[in-house]
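This is your field. Have a critical look at the following sequence-structure pair:

***
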Amino acid sequence: MSKASVAVIQMAVDPASRQHNWQQAETLIRQAAAQGAQIILLPELFEWRYFCTEQDARYHALAEPLAGHPAVQHFSRLAAELQVVLPLSVFEAAGQARYNTVVIIDADGSVLGHYRKTHIPDGPGYSEKFYFNGGDTGFKVWHTRYARLGVGICWDQWFPEAARAMALLGAELLCYPTAIGSEPQDPTLDSRDHWQRTMQGHAAANLMPLFAANRIGSEQGRDLSQTYYGSSFITDGKGAVLHSAGRTEQAVLVQEFDLAELAAVRASWGVFRDRRPDAYAPLLTLDGHTPVPAAG
């Protein structure tokens, strides 16, 4: 298909009711589909309060295997009914490991596979290393019914290498489910604009649209509360913001893209033609000098 329509969903999460969060997400997905959206993105870990605000072993029990995962089953049926693609963020259990995972549900309800979050943050209010293993899938691109989709998860969005890897793998669109907001160690720190600009740069550098879905509202944890700043957005293929939600309101943003036109522009710029992988050895190191052994 030459054209594809995407949507981002911005929503608050009810900390007391997984079912309520499912129902709210479904209502907003239906709204997006009614507006013509074909690929619809929910926020990161939308089923639950963002429990990574603190380290509490009880939350490990929320992880479930992908086989038979109730959210995947529920939203697969919805995807098939509405003929939409749903990159679905879940807390995955795999043996003794736990992953922050996105399952890619195609427009017929089938599961194309999954991506496990590569970059795992560890800081005040974002103690994800306590809950999640580092992802082992590598970056992937999904040949969905409507477009080739590259999917990263939240902290991945700060790394240009992730976006470039997905572009090289053939992505036509990039998306990032997200949970980001206030910084407990510094109430004056507001990363919203930096957050958006970083991803605008990925879109511009790779000449492809990008969309990110964040949650809203304040959530109280055991030790502290955090307020999520929303501001979900969609860019064009040169990084300009086409739509941006506010900080506090629920939102459904929809945009159609001409994929053939985007591909022609990408080719005309020559940024992929003129790449020099032979000159990028420092990118395979941590210190700029010492190569890191390949995974696996």
Notes: Residues 18-34 form the longest helix (17 residues). The longest strand covers residues 3-12. The helical segments are 18-34, 70-82, 160-168, 192-206, 259-269.
